[in-house]
Specification:
Order of helices and strands: HHEEEEHEEEEEEHH
CATH topology: Nucleoside Triphosphate Pyrophosphohydrolase
CATH superfamily: Nucleoside Triphosphate Pyrophosphohydrolase
Number of strands: 10
Number of helices: 5
CATH architecture: Alpha-Beta Complex
Distance between the termini: 33 Å
């Protein structure tokens, strides 16, 4: 947990949302022992990937069955302190890709995301927050893609400018995907 806390402390926020969310994440770490597991029903760490093609013109997205929307890849830390490893594992599981190229081993973005109550594996999960770290990863567009039926029902490349049109999670579009694309544009 110490290494994760240090990574978050070193992260330079991109905007006010990231600054506020960074401080809240650090408070969670100081307050709760179990923020790396779903045992913390208020909030827990997750990791996502902003997966781009070589030209950085497309993003690899999944159709998320719970959110009923096209979304980035990612998942719960489930006790792991290596959130980059979590992001890569989830990317591979959710899309079937085998080869990934890490564009930076540092946190690309951080955000706290509200998750509405829902049914997962036949059980109700109360509303909570995901303390999310995002990493920037490149994947070859020619990789064979496969869905992970228990989590998603589609995997596809989406043009960067179309991300806002395929997702129906308005807050995530405006506060996360827009930010990720702005940051990505600065790397081109």
């Amino acid at each position: 947990m110490k290494k994760l806390k240090e990574q978050i402390e070193r992260y330079k926020p991109y905007n006010e949302q990231e600054e506020k969310d960074k401080q809240t994440m650090l408070k969670y770490i100081d307050t709760f022992d179990n923020v790396l597991t779903r045992d913390n029903e208020f909030g827990h760490f997750t990791a996502s990937s902003w997966v781009v093609n070589k030209e950085k013109t497309k993003v690899l997205m999944i159709y998320h069955n719970i959110y009923k929307s096209w979304a980035w890849t990612g998942g719960h830390a489930d006790g792991e302190t290596d959130l980059l490893g979590t992001a890569i594992r989830e990317l591979k599981e959710e899309t079937g890709v085998k080869n990934v190229k890490l564009l930076n081993d540092k946190i690309f973005s951080l955000e706290i995301i509200c998750v509405d109550g829902h049914i997962k594996r036949g059980k109700y999960v109360s509303s909570h927050v995901h303390l999310n770290l995002t990493y920037l990863i490149e994947v070859d567009e020619n990789e064979i893609l496969k869905i992970k039926e228990d989590e998603n029902s589609g995997v596809r490349w989406v043009n960067i400018e179309d991300v806002k049109n395929v997702s129906n999670e308005q807050w995530v579009i405006e506060n996360v995907y827009k930010k990720l694309n702005e940051k990505l544009e600065k790397l081109k």
